[in-house]
Amino acid sequence: MNKLTDQQIEKFVADFPSAGRDVSMAGKTFLKIGGPARIFLTAEKNEDLVRAVKVAKQNEIPWYIMGGGSNLLVSDDGFEGVVIQMADRSVSIDGTKAIAFAGCFTGLLARDLAKRGLVGFEWGVGVPGTIGGAVYGNAGCFGGEMKDAIVSVETYDLTEDAIVTYKKDECGFSYRESRFKREPHIILKTELELNMGDASASLKKIDEIMAKRKDSQPQGAFSAGCLFKNFTYEDEGALEILRRKIENVPPEMLKNKKLGAGWLIDMLGLKGTQIGKAQISPVHGNFLLNLGGARAQDVLGLSSLVKMRVRDELGIMLEDEVQLLGF
Ligand code: EPU
Fold this sequence. Notes:
This protein has 327 residues and is α+β, with helices and mostly antiparallel strands.
């Protein structure tokens, strides 16, 4: 990465005096890992965010938009550019429709909707980070997926340099995928459609989801959630090597043509494996933990080790779910 010049930094900061310099990304991410962002800006309003990207582009400053930092691994050297954090957390609700700005927290939104008796988004309570990030990666858990509730997504299209709104079926959603991962867009807000229902039943469902999460996922540790996507396949042939080693593949996984990455890692006995202070959770094989003071290099080393073992021994290529910055 080329170092930013003082002139580039000063030009950006002249437009955005609240921007910080050399801000530790370890303090901004759930993993608590990462060197400094040369410039860091919290964008309180979506308009500031769009303007900040324009100013960065004019000054040839590399830029990166982050949501809540829940699914992000930043290099130990940091990022030689500007990191812009979405902080427009507005939500407006009208009948069964909700407009959620990209910076609002998915878990808080889920609780807010449930309290109002707007049902169908309870699963969102288990998703860390912001709605912008959840839309970008079509986040999901406990049977729900972001795309289920979406009517449309408003974006800033960086290719067209214009605000563009996409209807749900134009968003290219699939398992942990959207068109926004493939084409440069900034997600600004999303319109959701819920169902009118019973608030107390909805809140009960939220409690159940939280309890399930507590049982099956590590708690209280620094982690970026699931490290890899689950493995989806079309043709049973993809399981040929795996079948030689593992006889009892859970029927649920075969039915959905989706093998849990955590389960695969568990089957190889890799839970608890450690490099430096990075560890594969002893509780769930797809969670990587920072035990305190882990470096990004440790995480990458551990992630490569897991990928190689799963590829060599089970014939399956795992794909990263976590976003990488500064590598
Ligand atoms: N399993 C094991 N060993 C493990 C982990 C899981 O045998 O170490 C088994 C479980 O017993 C279960 C199956 O694998 O039978 C599936 O596990 P789980 O229910 O925990 O779900 P998952 O497929 O591993 C997905 C999402 C999670 C989400 C949970 C809960 C992905 C990559 N992961 O995990 O999302 O919280 O379902 O619904 O899609 C995330 O995206 O960051 C994330 C954590």
